[in-house]
Design goal:
The complex is a heterodimer of chains A (296) and B (427). Chain A has 296 residues and is an alpha/beta fold. Chain A has twelve helices and ten strands. Classes of the chains: A alpha/beta (296), B mainly alpha (427).
Chain lengths: 296, 427
């Protein structure tokens, strides 16, 4: 699978390239030491997702090392870190998207509302309906705008009639801030929209299923600043009803949209905390190095 | 002083552009050569074959005396038994009373095809009121006459080979007929309506065409669902382990197996073991299915692989199950490519002769097959059989049959292109 190759390649590249500048040796020393103790409070009150000692392997390569974190209800948490640090891999564990990668093995314990999502009794289809996902590149189905949004409710049987379905589609598009732009051309292909519109269509498609958690994997990295601003606004609105986990390369974005931030480094969770504190007063020197732009 | 990049580049730039131009010309020349050969082939085939679409007929005044027919002319069965070739002979004798001895009479009778009496019979049975009258009837001429008319001898050298098969006397009779407007070329309906025959003027392509159609129908109905199903399973559902690797290697090897081997397999398994009727389109279809399957599986897997992973992720991300993901998102995107692979396989199957030889479709079959279980032959086999016949009339029919085969192929491909266009999704 391509995703697997991508991720492993990134990891190797990063390890080969190392970290530029004088910090290289020190950082290598740091990361080669037994394990990094996560700085900051990983627990939250009223958690929705609890991860304990999660390890992820791609074949022989370990992409995630012993990560534990809790994610609260209706919280926006950003995951930042240099490329290849495993933040996307970790995100994809939360709705078992890594299952489609043949060589990927996930160990540890991830609970959604107290149920282990990797247990045998968990149905992966149900899980993915509860934990929706928005991907890095907009990936609408090559179908009409209407069909894109209607697909989820239809396969899950969330609506009984055509009228209900129309309403669900309209609601989802409205909440994604796309309704006014597309209401007159619902039957046109979703792939004909601009990049930002496509990404909002993907968000509409995700919320049409009425998930509890939305995972966003660098949702704005393929978009221009105006489209990015719209998506960020949207995230702000969505955070009132949904738990949002966003992976981002842009620290400004993390600072703008999230309440909490988690910093990953080479597969390890280095620091978690209140976004403002992370950006103003990072405790770990790796976090500090990343935020001040010494590497990234 | 160090040289600037621009100056350094200049030296090689000319050579780089020259290489580009050279390559363009290589491409153009090879396309031209290909087109020239294609044109040559078409000119050759059409030039040789177009004359087969016409057939020489001779018009004779037939005196249909009531005494030559049974008394009850409304009884079709009784009419069937009447001596129609005798009637034709009588008409010929009436027209050329100078042929009195046995040898001349035989030469005279040879002008008309032995099949003409059947046509006359059918006409009279269809319209018994003709009995008792004298009617002018166009009768199919013999193939030697046909050749004489289509390729008239030049000068005194005796003309082209084949025309010499007519004696001096026969030629004189024909010239007399021609001067009376009793000799003419008509559109050759027999060629499109009849099955094979020993006589070129009675032989037609319809039997082989129907045989090929039935055979390919069986092939398509079996190989498309099985091949595409196997490809989808192997690509989307099967675990990746040494067993599936083994299957993949074997499928790839099967695609390269000479087709006659499949024919032997079909003979041993389908006909001898399962008792599928010999020479029938169903047996041919089974064998060609075996041959086509690897092609369809390999090409279908390739297009499934080419469907971007983002679509799979999008479907799984909204909670589609694997089957839903595959059948409502991946397969629709891969379908045009699958159809292309299928049409390549079917095109190969249409032109295949070797495996059909082994299962008895290399036969002289006169009847038009009416079902999948009747004995029949196929277009390429028919072409081979005719190309092998010594009669000159079969030479032009061979080329004409090739044209029919090519037309069949074009129609089939056009249908596939149409389907592909319909299923194609704008990305």
């Amino acid at each position: 699978m391509r995703a697997a190759e991508d991720t492993t390649m990134e990891t190797t590249n990063d390890q080969a390239a190392g970290i530029p500048g004088g910090t290289q040796k020190e950082d290598e020393k740091l990361t080669s030491e037994a394990a990094i103790e996560t700085v900051g409070d990983i627990t939250v009150e009223n958690p929705r997702i609890q991860c304990h000692n999660v390890d992820v392997f791609y074949g022989d390569k370990q992409a995630i090392k012993n990560v534990s974190i809790e994610i609260g209800r209706n919280e926006v948490i950003a995951m930042i870190g240099p490329s290849g640090c495993g933040k996307s891999t970790f995100l994809r564990c939360l709705n078992r998207m890594n299952d489609i990668i043949e060589s990927c093995v996930v160990k540890g314990d991830i609970q959604l509302d107290g149920n282990n999502i990797y247990s045998k009794s968990t149905d992966v289809v149900t899980l993915r309906a509860q934990v929706g996902m928005v991907f890095q590149r907009p990936n609408p189905f090559p179908k009409s705008i209407y069909e894109n949004v209607a697909y989820g409710p239809r396969i899950h049987g969330l609506v009984d009639s055509k009228i209900d379905l129309d309403e669900a589609v309209e609601n989802s598009l409205r909440r994604a801030g796309l309704w006014d732009e597309v209401k007159d051309r619902l039957q046109q292909p979703g792939t004909g929209l601009s990049g930002g519109q496509q990404q909002r269509l993907c968000i509409a498609r995700t919320i049409a299923v009425r998930p509890e958690v939305i995972l966003m994997d660098e949702p704005c990295s393929a978009l221009d600043p105006i489209a990015t601003a719209k998506i960020e606004e949207l995230m702000d609105e969505l955070s009132q009803n949904y738990t949002i986990v966003i992976v981002t390369h842009s620290m400004q974005q993390a600072a703008r949209v999230s309440k909490r931030t988690a910093y990953f480094h080479l597969g390890e969770l280095v620091e978690v905390g209140d976004t403002r504190r992370i950006f103003t007063n990072p405790q770990h020197r790796l976090t500090e190095g990343y935020i001040t732009g010494r590497f990234g | 002083m160090e040289q600037r990049t621009v100056d350094l580049m200049q030296k090689r730039l000319k050579r780089r552009y020259a290489a580009e131009r050279r390559f363009k010309w290589y491409g153009r020349i090879s396309i031209l050569i290909a087109l020239a050969f294609l044109l040559l082939m078409f000119i050759n085939i059409v030039g040789k074959g177009y004359s087969a679409f016409q057939q020489t007929h001779i018009r004779l005044a037939m005196t249909l005396d009531a005494e030559d027919f049974p008394s009850d002319i409304s009884d079709a069965e009784a009419l069937f038994a009447a001596d129609y070739s005798g009637l034709i002979k009588k008409a010929l004798r009436n027209r050329f009373p100078e042929a009195t001895n046995r040898r001349d009479k035989r030469a005279l009778y040879q002008l008309i095809s032995p099949g003409a009496s059947y046509k006359l019979r059918d006409e009279i049975i269809a319209n018994p009121a003709l009995i008792g009258q004298t009617v002018e009837v166009w009768l199919t001429a013999d193939d030697d006459v046909d050749m004489y008319v289509k390729h008239p001898p030049k000068g005194d050298a005796g003309g082209e080979p084949g025309t010499q098969r007519l004696s001096e006397k026969q030629r004189t009779w024909l010239e007399q007929l021609r001067s009376e407007d009793r000799l003419a070329k008509h559109f050759n309906t027999t060629f499109f309506k009849a099955g094979d025959s020993r006589e070129p003027e009675l032989a037609g392509i319809w039997g082989a065409l129907v045989g090929s159609f039935f055979t390919l129908l069986v092939t398509l109905c079996l190989s498309f669902p099985i091949g595409v199903g196997a490809a989808i399973y192997l690509e989307e559902f099967a675990p990746k382990n040494k067993w599936t690797d083994l299957i993949e290697v074997n499928v790839n090897n099967l695609a390269a197996v000479p087709s006659i081997v499949f024919g032997l397999l079909g003979l041993a398994v389908f006909i001898n073991f399962f008792g599928v009727p010999r020479s029938a389109p169903i047996a041919g279809g089974f064998v060609l299915t075996l041959m086509t399957l690897p092609v369809i599986i390999i090409s279908s897997r390739a297009v499934l692989k080419a469907v971007p992973p983002s679509i799979r992720e999008a479907a799984l991300g909204v909670g589609a199950s694997k089957v839903q993901m595959v059948f409502s998102h991946v397969v629709p995107l891969a379908l045009p490519g699958m159809l292309t692979g299928t049409i390549i396989g079917m095109g190969r199957a249409l032109g295949e002769t070797a495996p059909l030889l082994m299962i008895g479709m290399m036969a002289f079959v006169v009847d038009i097959p009416g079902s999948l279980f009747d004995s029949s032959t196929a277009l390429p086999v028919q072409i081979y059989l005719w190309a092998d016949s010594p009669e000159r009339g079969f030479e032009e029919r061979t080329s004409a049959a090739i044209m029919v085969l090519l037309a069949f192929l074009v129609v089939m491909n056009a249908a596939a292109v149409y389907l592909r266009k319909r299923f194609e999704r704008k990305w």
